[in-house]
Structures are given as structure tokens and as C-alpha cells.
Amino acid sequence: MMGRILITGTAGIIFGILQSVFLSNIMPLGIVPDIAMIILIAASWKYGSLTGEISGFIIGLSLDALGLAPLGFHAFLYTLIGYLFGRMHNSISPGPIFLPVLAAGIATLIKYGGAFLVSLIFGLNSGAIRYFSLKTVWELGGNLLLAPLVFLLVTYMAMIFEGKRGGFN
User: Fold this and answer.
1) What gap in Å lies between CA 77 and CA 145, rounded to an integer?
2) Residue 80: domain span
3) How many structural domains is the chain composed of?
4) DSSP for 77-142?
5) Residue 31's CB: how many other CB atoms inside 10 A?
6) What digits encode the pLDDT tens for the residues 70-115?
7) How far apart are CA 145 and CA 78, in angstroms?
8) Cβ–Cβ < 8 Å for 33, 148
9) What is the Cα–Cα distance from 18 to 26, expressed in whole angstroms?
10) For the whole model, what pTM was predicted?
11) CATH of the domain at 76
């Protein structure tokens, strides 16, 4: 389990840095899909809620360190997303296209809805926290387009790092 958390957290941090530092300058209008969140969704769905919670907390703290939001803001949101999608671990198989796209859409709405509620409850009026806007809609579209590819990538990376499991030959 520690290896799964380490791999998921590291991949999420790397893509979080890439999307925050590099992609935001390259992409038109600064609209960047949240690849780190999609990695978290896929890994949580594959490995369960405990891995999702811990990985979400690690990825969220790294995003808090990179951004201007208060420390713990993204950590809370990503921990919540990791837990919720980790609950699907043994109940529903994500499949290749439809459920990853649906999961990315729901997670994006949870992220922005949760950001709004946390800001409302704690009175955060920071310009660093973005709510529902036109950029949110474009980010949602980018997340929906990238979700099947990221789910496939996470599945492929899991096969590489986990290796062949035991059993009868």
C-alpha cells in the first residue's frame, strides 16, 4: 500500500507542478485541465479509499504550497475526492470511456462546489480561489477529454509497477 501511495502521490505532485507552472503559461487563456485530480480519481478507484485519502492529502498539500490558497485548502478538497472515488473500488469497474468521463466531471464539480462552500464557511475572499466561471467550464471540458487517457495511463502504470501477481500458471 505504501508503494501505491508513493507512486500516486509522486505522479500527482509532478503533474500538479507541470500544470501549475508550465501548462498555465502555454495553454490558451490559461485554461489548464486538472491532470493531478484525474490521476487521483483513477488511482483511488483502482486502489481504494485509504490510498485515495492519503494520496489526495499529499497532492493537495503540494498544490497548497504552490498556490496562494490557504494551507490545507486543496488538501481538504483532494482528500475528499480521493475518499469518495476510493469508495467505488470494489463495487463498480470504471470501464474505458463513459465512467472515467463521468467521474472527471463529478470530481470537477465537487472541487469547485467544495471550494465555494469552504470559502463561504471560513470567509475566504482570496483572489487565489476560483469559483464557477467560464474558465471552470473550459477546465471541465479538458478534464472530460483527458479522463479516459489518464485512466488508461494509470492502469498501465499499475501493471508495470505491480508486476505479475501470484496464482496458478
Assistant:
1) 22
2) 2-162
3) 1
4) HHHHHHHHHHTTTTT---TTTHHHHHHHHHHHHHHHHHHHHHHHHHT---TTS--SSHHHHHHHHH
5) 16
6) 899 999 999 999 999 999 988 888 888 999 999 999 999 999 999 8
7) 20
8) no
9) 11
10) 0.89
11) 1.10.1760
